[in-house]
Amino acid sequence: MDFDNNKPIYIQIYDSIRDRILAGDFAPDERIPSVREYGAMVGVNPNTVMRTYEKLTADGVIYTKRGMGYYVSPNAKEVIMENDRKSFMENELPTIVNRMKLLGIDPSVFNDYFEK
Amino acid sequence: MDFDNNKPIYIQIYDSIRDRILAGDFAPDERIPSVREYGAMVGVNPNTVMRTYEKLTADGVIYTKRGMGYYVSPNAKEVIMENDRKSFMENELPTIVNRMKLLGIDPSVFNDYFEK
Amino acid sequence: MDFDNNKPIYIQIYDSIRDRILAGDFAPDERIPSVREYGAMVGVNPNTVMRTYEKLTADGVIYTKRGMGYYVSPNAKEVIMENDRKSFMENELPTIVNRMKLLGIDPSVFNDYFEK
Amino acid sequence: MDFDNNKPIYIQIYDSIRDRILAGDFAPDERIPSVREYGAMVGVNPNTVMRTYEKLTADGVIYTKRGMGYYVSPNAKEVIMENDRKSFMENELPTIVNRMKLLGIDPSVFNDYFEK
DNA sequence: GTGGTCTAGACCACC
DNA sequence: GTGGTCTAGACCACA
């Protein structure tokens, strides 16, 4: 796995695991690789993977069983979708609209683009 | 002025000055506040403002007269609009639409939000 | 049985067995399930149950007959009650009261909660 | 500062800072020592202090200004009190009451103890 | 084996 | 100077 230097590695792993869960690569209650395994796979230090797993746990996307590993939450997909939708509506949408107004771009471009 | 901690302050000032130029707060060839003044206004170290002014100068949005200060370029608005519209239509719009499709968000939210 | 991840599982099993003895689920000199059986029941590795049984044996709450299994001590209830009451009154009660005072919580919450 | 080996150091620092805020050692919007300073003071690695600060930030007890340091939230005291009260009522009270019932301890001990 | 904590040391962007 | 990220390596309790 190769990383973009402008973004923390642990965030990039975070994004990629969320994507893989959404894509169905990891099923609910399935065990995901240990921090050591995953670190070896993508070529980063286990500590860095740990940080990703901590964040995903805080989100409620995965959970941990002591001494056994990390598992995908049963409702992981819903949690991810819900978080993203919320963040889009509350944070991104306002700033996008604001910019479009300043740039004089009409909202109809979205309808047009959607149909393609 | 209050800042978002996830973005460099000098970029946030950069954005805000560009917005103010688009909004007409600063007219072409008008002098903008010195780094010291501006820093005091927004509660920030002059060094940080300096960094903003350097970036705006590199963009061609403002220019400097030695010993006199910084001035808005005659064609500042056009420069900003040109760059931003292009980048918006080519880069941002596609990724936004893509995300919205994944999240199942309807393009009509834009029309709705615009009216507010 | 579902476990709280902040506490070792063998301790949680330990607590639960003590509770069951106090509640009369296990009578004095009655045989308790083998580590294998108990592990299967609660979905845990026999090693983990073993650790619990060792601790209970050290406490004098159960005893072992070689080749036959583990049995509840005749005076198990008394041992548990004795230890716990003392430790509760001397150690826990003072710190609980102290915290409640700091947090401004009235002792009446206990009377209220008891009735439920 | 000397630490209890049974508890993570970063949690012990976390507790101690919360206590100091409640005690008024750190005022609202006051800057707290940098991770390096604090680490040197209590004799731990800055990374460990960082972990404490991250947790306090997640709680809303402190906030960070980029490149400048960490500051006590204006409503830090209220946040701490509220969190503690909630955790007491939801987590501790039920388990305490449960144990008292098993041990046959009457809730009146609290009223008695409070008056001392 | 697993997660979890901690250290020492490094490098970066930002202020 | 500050926070923030990352590595390498260590040690521990737990399963």
How would you explain this protein's 3D organization?
4 copies of one chain form a homotetramer. Chain A is 63% helix and 9% strand. In chain A, strands 1-3-2 form a 3-stranded antiparallel sheet. Chain A is mainly alpha-helical and 116 residues long. The first copy, chain A, has helices spanning 9-23, 35-42, 46-59, 76-103, 108-115, and strands at 31-32, 62-65, 69-72. In chain A, helix 1 packs across helix 3 and helix 2 (35-42) crosses helix 3. The two termini of chain A are 31 Å apart. Chains in contact: A-B, A-C, B-D, C-D. Chains C and D meet through helix 1, helix 4 and helix 5 of C and helix 4 and helix 5 of D. Chain A binds a DNA duplex (15 and 15 nucleotides) through residues 8-10, 34-36, 44-45, 47-48, 50-51, 53, 64-70.
- Shape descriptor of chain A: elongated
Structural class of chain A, by secondary structure, is mainly alpha
Order of helices and strands of chain A: HEHHEEHH
Strand content of chain A: 5-15%
Biggest β-sheet description of chain A: 3 strands, antiparallel
In terms of quaternary structure, what is this? homotetramer
The stretches of 5 or more residues of chain A where confidence is low (pLDDT under 50) are none
State the total count of DSSP E strands of chain A: 3
Radius of gyration of chain A: 18 Å
List the helices and strands and how they pair.
Four copies of one chain form a homotetramer.
Chain A: H1 9-23, E1 31-32, H2 35-42, H3 46-59, E2 62-65, E3 69-72, H4 76-103, H5 108-115
Antiparallel strand pairs in A: 1-3, 2-3
Chain A binds a DNA duplex (15 and 15 nucleotides) through residues 8-10, 34-36, 44-45, 47-48, 50-51, 53, 64-70.
